[in-house]
Amino acid sequence: MVDGHRIVVLGGGYAGLTAAARITEANTGVSVTLIDRKADFVERIRLHEIAAGSDPRDLGYRVFVEGRGGVFLRGMVSAIDLDQQTLQVGEAALPWDMLVYALGSYTDIDSVVGVREHAVSLDDIAACKALYNQLYKAPAGTKILIVGGGLTAFEAACEFAERLPGLDVTLAVGTRFAAADEPGGLSQHAVEHLENVFNRLNVKLIVGSRVASLHPGSAIFEDGSSELFDVCLWAAGFSVPKLARQSGLAVNDAGQIQTDDTLASVSHPNVLAVGDAAEVIVDLGGRCRMSCATGRPMGERAAMTILGRVKSSAIEAFSFGYSFRCVSLGREDGLIQFVDAQDRPVEEVWTGARGARWKEYICQRTLQGIGFDVDVGDPPDTPPAHP
Ligand SMILES: Cc1cc2nc3c(=O)[nH]c(=O)nc-3n(C[C@H](O)[C@H](O)[C@H](O)COP(=O)(O)OP(=O)(O)OC[C@H]3O[C@@H](n4cnc5c(N)ncnc54)[C@H](O)[C@@H]3O)c2cc1C
User: Fold this and answer.
1) Rounded CA separation 338/384 (Å)
2) How high is the pLDDT of residue 231?
3) What percent of the chain clears pLDDT 70, i.e. is strictly above it?
4) pLDDT, tens digit, for every residue of 228-256?
5) DSSP reduced 3-state for 259
6) Which of 26, 195, 284, 286 has the fewest CB atoms nearer than 10 Å to its CB?
């Protein structure tokens, strides 16, 4: 092993696993350890599919990481000592020389009263399978209220409505519906398509007010109205783990690690941060939104920063510009919203089977990009030149 180059990657999501794979594949003699609390990589972008009855794939970390010459350690990271350069996993204190912090995010269930107690969320395979088992056996007319105005909520609503047709699916999107001038907003054509799909699948929309609190079987909105439910699925935003702040790393208000243009922490350069847990601001695309679309390229770049340091070679700045957003609308329909480099929607969208094929292709290509051996096939279509 090269002295001084014990690399530890915390979190095997889209960003962390990509970084771990690229560093080990470079065969530079550094030691690479990936730590995750789970045994398997979870395709988080397919969790709504699993909650509607799909089986998760078997994507074990050990085979993936150890097949590339790294080490996989299953455990919960509970503390990082930045002075001693150690971290706590269970009883063990593990030394590191460079750390890649990629602990991702989880559904924010604490910002609104009652969500933690009265809602479910799409956060892990076990919870998604449990939700499917509950919904699958539920009597016709069982009402699921999905709360969230973003793509995850739209995807979940369509998946349930299409695959569990006895359910009564209601989607509470907040004050506005996919407004083009808000983050994650959509073009007029895209909004019309979504409305048509919701009509076809009998998904009811509640627009105009945000949920203020949840109670057993009911949601109270900020405008005083209320809505009853049998099951509430909360999909209204992500939070990041508190570990970065607790450890003393410089973080923003949301708790994301602030990074420089090589993805190193601005306060502790031996810590790199990637994915949802990092605040990354780039010249072209601006502030990166939480997504696997940004997380994977960050993982690639963090690996290059580390390899550049190991080899004492030049390190390039991270650069990223957006191209499109992919939304599944059940298994047969999809929406591809093309965007400019700053993630603002342009008029061009792909819909229907064409959108569904492209979304599926992107999901597969994402896995392949990390390094999993999956059959992707040829691109089903040619995206337009970047606006
Ligand atoms: C239903 C759904 C659909 C989505 N669809 C899309 C989409 O179409 N396109 C898109 O770009 N994004 C989508 N997203 C968002 C995307 O999944 C996330 O932005 C992405 O997963 C972030 O990647 P990451 O590598 O930063 O973190 P994560 O994927 O969250 O991975 C973090 C890892 O860290 C591990 N971990 C966390 N804390 C600890 C700890 N203390 N100790 C040990 N291990 C720990 C976790 O087990 C996990 O494996 C979707 C999300 C959901 C929920």
Assistant:
1) 8
2) 98
3) 98
4) 999 999 999 999 999 999 999 999 999 99
5) strand
6) 284
Identical topology for domains 6-105+240-311 and 107-238? yes
Residue nearest to atom 19 of ligand 1 (CA): 291
Q: Give Cα separations from 78 to 32, 102, 241, 279, 379 (angstroms).
A: 19, 14, 10, 21, 42
205-219, 324-338, 369-383: least confident range:
369-383
Domain residues of the chain, as ranges? 6-105+240-311, 107-238
Q: For residue 194, report the phi and psi dihedrals to the nearest 5 degrees.
A: -60, -45
From the CB of 44, is ligand 1 less than 6 Å away? yes
Return d(Cα 155, Cα 38) in angstroms, integer.
25
Give 295's pLDDT tier (boundaries 50, 70, 90).
very high
CATH superfamily entry for domain 6-105+240-311:
FAD/NAD(P)-binding domain (3.50.50.60)
The CB of 343 under 6 Å from ligand 1? The reply is no
Helix axes 292-311, 14-25, angle to 10 degrees: 30
CATH of the domain spanning 107-238, picked from 3.50.50.60, 3.90.740.10, 2.60.40.1180, 3.40.50.40: 3.50.50.60
Q: Is 131 in the pocket of ligand 1 (CB under 6 A)?
A: no
